[in-house]
Amino acid sequence: MTEQTTAPTAATEEPTAPEQELPPTGAEPAAAAEPVPATEPVPATDVPATEPAVATEPLAAPEQALAAVEQPVPAPKSSRRVLRAVARWTAAVLVLGGLGTGTALGITSMERTDVPGLATEGDGRWDYPELGLPALPAGSPRPFNEANVAEIHHADLRKLLIPAPAGATADKKLTGGWVSTAQFVGEFRKDKRGELTQLLDDSALRHIAARGWTMPDGTRSRVYLLQFNSTAYAQGLRDDTYVSSTPGIPLDWPTDLQLNESWNAGGKVPETVVYAFGETKTGKGRIHEAYIQAGDTIALVIHSQQGRKIAEQVPFRQTLILQNQLLG
Predict the structure, then answer these.
(1) Side-chain-side CA neighbours of residue 41 (13 Å)
(2) Which residues of 174-209 are buried (b: 16+ CB within 10 A; e: fewer)?
(3) Helices (H), the chain
């Protein structure tokens, strides 16, 4: 193809005439052609066969040339069909991908038990409200703070009681307030109540707070907090009642309880002591009992089931751990 003449770069410039092509090196000069009158057209036979014909269309104006360049070249019909098919499949993939993403986000935002096929059976935990430590009097440290050498609980003891879980029926006698020594002693065997009462009188007991409730499955729970004038008196009562490898003074229950060897003290607060008991060494049975000593305070936690039904260990351990944390 012949080289096209470049359009003027500015509207004010005049177009220059195309330069004449020089003959190849070494070639003989062609014979001069006879002049042809300007009014007569040049015969087609007079044009050398070796030279291509020059286009007779006039050069486009600069604006027209730019417009021609900017217009896209139309694609063949077969290419258009391919492009339309690709566009349709791309749209379908995007729609399906969007639906899949929305489903994934919906599942991840749901609880596991709300997803069909992924639901897991509850482990028996009770639904306790959110717990928090009560405010202390100004300048009073926590019981196991370095500044509190005597390990005294300065907070209101009633506010250190674990609250009842959701669905519980409150015990009308154990409402979370102060209770008498007789109320506490009534949890133990009749032939031991006099002995325990005397021990409490001799141990400088300050007061007792208690809360009780019954769950829909029939589990009855009682939590007692006993505060003494000092940590030494609390430790003395624990020693006098032989609470260690044995439950000490037995509860008002038809069977004797044994140290729960399966209790791993999980969640136990440092500087506190926990002893858990049940009808067997594995903790299985109709009743669970535990003592917590935390500084000047001793806690007694009891979960029991009437009849032949086994008292679940999971809520008992949950209650015990949470009460231990409140005392720490």
Answers:
(1) 3
(2) bebeebebeebbebbeeebbeebeebbeebebeebb
(3) 62-70, 77-108, 181-185, 190-202, 231-240, 313-327
pLDDT band of 78, cuts 50, 70, 90: low
Residue 211 exposed, middle or buried by CB count within 10 Å (0-12, 13-18, 19+): buried
Where b means 16+ CB within 10 Å and e means fewer, 85-101 reads eeeeeeeeeeeeeeeee
- Quick check: pTM over 0.85? no
Q: What angle do CA 169, 172, 178 make, to 5 degrees?
A: 120
Residues 6 or more apart whose CB falls under 8 angstroms from that of 54 comprise 2
User: For residue 83, what pLDDT is reported?
Assistant: 57
pLDDT tens readout for residues 239-292: 999 999 899 999 999 999 999 988 876 667 889 999 999 999 888 899 999 999
Cβ proximity of 238 and 291 under 8 Å: yes
Q: How many CB atoms lie within 10 A of CB 30?
A: 8
